[in-house]
Amino acid sequence: MEYLAFALKYRPQNFDEVIGQGHVVVSLRNAILKNRIHHAYLFSGPRGTGKTSLARILAKSLNCSQGPTINPCGKCPNCLEIIRGTSLDIIEIDGASNRGIDEIRTLRENVKLSTAGARYKIYIIDEVHMLTQEAFNALLKTLEEPPRHVKFIFATTHPHKVLPTILSRCQKFQFNLLPLEKIVEKLKKIVEAEGLEIQDSLLYAIARAGEGSIRDAESLLDQIAPVILEKKPVEDILSFLGIIDEEVLNSTLKALVEKDLSASLEIIDKIVKGGKDLGIFLNALLEHLRNLLLAKVSVKGFGELIDISCESKDFILKIAELISASEVLKIIDLLIEAKDLSGKLNTVRIPLELAVIKFSYQEKEKSAPSEKKNNEAGRKNSELKAVGQIAESEEKTIQSSAQLKNDFDLEMADFELEEESSVNVDDGGDMDESQELPDDNISVDGLKLKWREIIAYIQKSRAAIASHLLFAQPFSSQDSLVKIAYSKKDYFHKEIVEDSKNLKVIEDAVSKFMNKKIGIKFIFVEGIPAISQNSFKQEAVNNTEAEDNFQELDQDNEFIDGLIDTFRGSIHAED
Fold it and tell me: Which one is the CATH code of 402-567: 3.40.50.2300, 3.20.20.10, 3.40.1790.10, 3.30.300.180?
């Protein structure tokens, strides 16, 4: 007996055997029952969804000896001729190879002829969108007013390419892709009829590879039938077809979710060494990640949105609890980038591995939230503790700020009476500053009283310099040279302000407040207290008013300095 391909052998022969196109079947049945048969139909939809098969069933229903009927007998001469493809009254035309105006002119001449014995002469034109515009135009008049015994059934995968004038003369039916379960159900019937033993997981893999096309799925099953008879493992059979097993996709998904980089790279390596197409694997993985994303964002109707086996659905629902939707979107974006990059590099492996590595490393940085939170909490606690210590220190400084002024003045007075100072002074140069006594050519006490105002003034334009001056105090003066002291532990601040540009800013500010061109030299003196930052901030706030009164104070500057020197006093702001 001559071998017949599964797609032809198990082609539906009546309306009851058509799967996945119930809306079309119901409409055509009712049209036949009520004798409302149109002269032109357009069946559009993806390949392998039953357009041509349903056209033949409709032709049998119209030309059956017992018809028109919704249940053609399949035994009368007309039905048998249609089944065998030998009927003279059912003319099937391939629009791709008969697309010119000459073929349509021949058709126009033939439609005038009566039937050879059937009730209707039916023209089935497949891929009708391939006809040229001239051919369409030549068909228009015949299609609009055909002879009563002529019916047209057009089939196309691209209805948008058909001229609107043709579409307007047809009843249009849209064919849908078949659900996975419907395809698996049909494949099981074929397997049972052929006496084959095959696992459900393999049937689901074949059905999924068909992508909604029953014909493609039947062809794949037909292809592996000889391999199934040899009882080969499922992995070998899928490899033979170039199909990625759901178990491999589930394992990859698990490795990605768990950030198991070694497992992910090992799976990719096995696929390459197994001779499978990484491009197919990448597409299948993206589809599987799409299913995972839907499981995260769709609480209701999740099972209806995806076409995978029940086992894989359960697995995805479990794995969805371990990852967030944003993480799923991240890996999808990375894989899409890898897919685009693979076209430029002419290789899939490198972009795919880079995407997996990038995702694993990025997510590893986020994968230990508890540790990160603990570290963050510890860091914040340390910062709070440090801030508390600073606040406590500043509070003490504020409380004793007035006393510090008086104490420092007294120390300076005592220092003038000492022949040899016990204070260790070092400016890093050849001169021994410890042998010099403070000189009042420029009033050091007056400068100390204005020191905060000077810092506040500098802070307006050069805040960084002002912050380093908080750790210094005016120490002594000689002619037009003022020596400003740092403690040795604050050597870093001394190095900053000694920079030529920074030094000029400070000298200009001091000269302005002292009404005299002043040179400045920074030295080391142990025991120099830093200015309280809180009190300085308050000084800076009040400095605006002080700045307004600067010119007035400046006029009496020498008189005020004299009073301070004579009475050993200090200036205090009024409450």
Answer: 3.30.300.180
